[in-house]
Amino acid sequence: MRTNGWVLQLVGSLAALVMLGAGVVGCVGGDPSGATAIDATLVLADAEPLAAIGPDAWSAAPGCEGLLARGVSFRVASLSGGLVACVDSSGRVVCVDSVEAISSDLDESGRDAEADALAAGFVAAVHAQELARTVSGMTSDPEPQPNTRPRGIGDPEPQPN
Predict the structure, then answer these.
(1) DSSP string of 55-66, one letter each residue
(2) What pLDDT, on a 0 to 100 scale, did the predictor assign at position 11?
């Protein structure tokens, strides 16, 4: 069973995103004969992020144990809380539970592909949120302002002490 596998991928993905956001540029080496943790991160980065659903829609919903019917879709209820809402085809929230609990239930019922898609979609949603935060922080004016000298102005004479 892979109940903790997606957690490790999430941690690896977030670490890679933090390095990117911090401006760390480097070369990641690996064993040329096999896949690395970075490969798993890149595969998850291709996943479509789960759409979010507002708290009004899911706050009264029960937990998902025993309620995971086939044909439900998943929505992010809370990224920080790790919660996912299961929504039926009419748009009604069937249940809400942690990503790990839902993924585990899906694995136990033989729905491995759905469990993988859920984990990848949740991680992609986390990536999208973190990337938006990083980009918004990069596009604002730096504070304090950098010391720059306009072009065409030479060194001052006499030189300052």
Answers:
(1) HHHHTTPPP-TT
(2) 47
- Please identify which residue in the block is written with the tokens 């979010």: 52
Angle, alpha carbons 143-126-15 (nearest 5°):
70
pTM for the structure as a whole: 0.57
Strands 93-98 and 83-87: antiparallel
Please give the sequence-ordered ranges of beta strands (E in DSSP) within the chain, or none if there are none: 73-78, 83-87, 93-98
Q: CA-to-CA distance for 94 and 58, rounded, in angstroms?
A: 9
Residue 53 phi/psi, 5° resolution?
A: -135, 140
Q: Is the peptide bond before 55 cis (omega within 30 degrees of 0)?
A: no
HSE of 119, CA atoms in CB hemisphere, 13 A: 27
Q: What is the pLDDT of residues 58-86, one digit of tens each?
A: 888 898 888 888 889 999 999 889 999 99
Cα(54)–Cα(93) distance, integer angstroms: 11
- The string of pLDDT tens digits covering residues 132-153 is 777 666 656 666 776 666 666 7
b/e map of 51-84 (b: 16 or more CB within 10 Å)?
A: eebeeebbeebeebeebbeeebebbbbebeebbb
DSSP helix/strand/coil, 83: strand
At residue 18, the 3 state secondary structure works out as helix
